[in-house]
Amino acid sequence: MNKAVFLDRDGVINYDPDDYIYKMEEFRFLDNLFEIATEITKRGYLLVVITNQGGMDKKRFTGEDVERIHTHIEKSFKENGTPISEIYYCPHHSDLQKCLCRKPDSLMVEKALYKYNIDPAQSYFIGDKPRDIVCAEKAGVKGIKIDVNQLKLNILDQIK
Ligand SMILES: [Mg+2]
Ligand SMILES: [Zn+2]
Hints:
By secondary structure, the chain is α/β, with parallel strands linked by helices. It is built from 4 helices and 5 strands. The chain starts with a strand and ends in a 15-residue tail after the last strand.
């Protein structure tokens, strides 16, 4: 079986200004991200991104905006030699409709576990919100909570 490190997007991969991020000019990767991705990949983990994008439901941005940012993320990780297996996102907002994918629910993680034959017991989820950790634990994955936008190199100490 494979093992994976799941990453939340806003506040973990890129700077989260505490508002929706959908414009390329406002998007920036956090410091240490690619160094951490390199080490995680070296240790044999797949990388999978799990993100709520409920602003789409609220019509703050479109699916095209999301795809543009995700294409940029995928390209940048690939160029770093640490390709992302897949980016899963939930386009629903709990104010408007119920769904099974929005974190803290774990459907997105469970889809990845199945598709990529990932052992949850050997996997981690790095997130900056309590709902990331709840989602991880529902799927049997160990959650690692960081403070928003504070991706430090010593997070690697928590990953085998
Ligand atoms: Mg976040
Ligand atoms: Zn959803």
